[in-house]
Sequence to fold (260 residues):
Amino acid sequence: ADDLFANIKYVLEANELKLNQLVSLGSDNTNVNVGNHHSVFALFEKVLPGLIKGTCYCHVLHNSVKHGHEHLLFDIEAALLKIYSHFCRSSVRSQELTNYFDFIEEEQKVILKYIRLRWLSLLRSIERLISIHTIVKSYFLNLTNDDCPELLLEFFTSDKSDEFSESTLYFLTKLTEVQNANLLLQRHYTTGVSIYNIITSLLLAELLENCPIRRADDLKKSFRLFVHSVIDYIEKYYNNYKSLYQSISIFNEFHIEKVE
Fold:
């Protein structure tokens, strides 16, 4: 941290950039960069007490959902990855799945690959699986136990757990608010003045409203824990600078009559 701090300070001064005009410092979220004690940010903060810790809220939203998944009864991410890898590595398996589509005379839809690094791909993968859930489920349940991965056998089994897994899939599609907020944050013209409205609108959204939670109590509990985990994770990063983002959000207004 000391060497990084010294080098950054040297580069700024060598380019005749005044250190006292540094407003914010953004970096990867590692301890050496942004740790609370002896980090690059902590060293700069000693020199500039009002320095703002730059945070990538796209990553915050992604990680909030990742943490929320720990409370769900089924690991949807693992199931999606397993389904995709089952077919992508074998042309024979892909052809067998094609036969299922042909049998019911339905146009085949490609199973989308989910990339763990970005949650934006998760929602699309879930929506695609829901659209072909019956066909994919039939394929795996018709395999012998030795051929069907244990994770997917549990995921698609026709007893209560299947009801839970399918309900969880539908529940996750209701969280488009997180997806939409992430897309807003990724606009090339989004600046700090937009953060307050984007994040506050997300935190105030009724994420459980109109969600078909009519299942067992433990399923309801897992959904609620998921939502609370998402909100808590976002607030952990957002609340420290909420007042600042709120104060500059006035510059995000396009209509002068809205500015008091």
